Amino acid sequence: MEDYHVAKFVQYRGRDLGLFAIYDGHLGDSVPAYLQKHLFNNILKEEEFWTDPQRSISKAYERTDQAILSHSPDLGRGGSTAVTAILINGLQLWVANVGDSRAVLSRRGQAIQMSIDHEPNTERESIEDRGGFVSNMPGDVARVNGQLAVSRAFGDKNLKTHLRSDPDVTNANVDADNDFLILASDGLWKVMSNQEAVDIAKKIRDPQKAAKQLVIESLHRESKDDISCIVIRFKG
Question: I need a surface site. Which of 20, 43, 66, 145 has the fewest CB within 10 A?
Answer without folding.
Answer: 66
